[in-house]
Amino acid sequence: MNPRCVAIHLPCDDRQMFHGKPLMLQNVMFCPALTWCVRAWVAQGVRRFFVVCEEKWTDLVLPCFPSDAAPQIVSGEQWASQLSALREQGVEVEEYREPVLPIGNLMMAFHNLEELGRLQAACHDASNAYHQKRGVHIVDPASTFIDPRVDIGPDTLILPNTILRGRTVIGRNCEIGPSTMLDGCTVGDNVTINTVQAQDSTIDDGCEIGPYTHIRPHCHVGKDSKIGAFVQLKNCSLGEGTKMAHLTYVGDADVGVHCNFGCGTVTSNYDGFKKHRTTIGDHVFIGCNTNLVAPVTVSDGVYIAAGTTVTRDVPADSLAVGRARQENKEGWARRNRELRGRK
Question: Catalytic residue at 246?
Fold first, then answer.
C-alpha cells in the first residue's frame, strides 16, 4: 500500500461556499473541481483519501472518486484523532484546507468563482492535451470540451464543437463530431458519430450515427447499425446491422438483427397513461410511414407495407397491410374547381 494519503477539507465557511455548496464541489468542465484533483492524485499513485466535511455532502463527494480509491468521510472532530493515528503509523498525510485545482504539476488554490473561472480555462487545455498525448486527434481544441472522466481510445478523431461529458468511453479509430455531445455513453471501435446528442447509451463497433440524431437514455445500438438524419431513439435495443435512414422514432422497443426501418416509422408507445413496448424480430422490413401501436410483436422475417398501422401481432414471414383501399373519383378535382369559381 502506498504510505501516502490525501485529506481534503470542505469547510462550511461562507467565503468558500457558493449557492450553499463548497467551492470544491462547484463544476469545472461538467464535474466538481474535486474530480479533477482526485484524477491528478490517483495518477501519482495515491489510493487512500479522507474527506473532512459534513455528512450531507457525501452523495456529491463519492462520485468524484474511482471505485478503487473510495474516500473515508469524517467530521472535523473525527479527523483530529484520525490524523494522529495516521502519523503514528508513519503515513505521509497531505492536507488541503483551501479549494485547489491541478494545473500542470501544481495544485493551484482558488478562493471565489472568479478565480475558479480563470482556472477552468487551464483545465480545458489540460484535458485536451491529456488525450492528445494518448493518440487522440483533436482538430480544434478551442471548441472541444472533454470531461476528466472521459476515456478515448487512440487514433480517434474529434471534430470541432464536440462536448464529451460524464463517464463516456470511446473506442479506437472513431470519428466523433462535428457538433456532437455524448454524455455517459459507451462507444465501440470504428464508430462514426456526426452531429448527434446521446445520453447514457451504448453504441457498438462499426456503427454510423447521424447527422441530427438524438439518442435518449437506455439505448443499445447493435454492431454495424446505421442511424440517420432526424431519428430519435429512447429506451430501446437494436440488433446488429439494423438501419434507420431518417425521420423515425423508436421508443420502448426491442429490435432484432438486420431490420430496415422506412422513413416516417413511429412506435406509438404511450397511451396517455403508461408506456408500452414494441418487440420486432430479425430481418424485418418496415415500410415508410408505418405506425406500430404498442404493445405489439412483429415476428421474424415480416414485411410491413408502407402506410400501415400495426395494431395486432404479426406472425413470422407474413405481409402486414393495414391501410384504406385507394379509390380514384374521376373528374372530381375539375368539378370542385368549377364549383369554387376557379379554372
Answer: yes
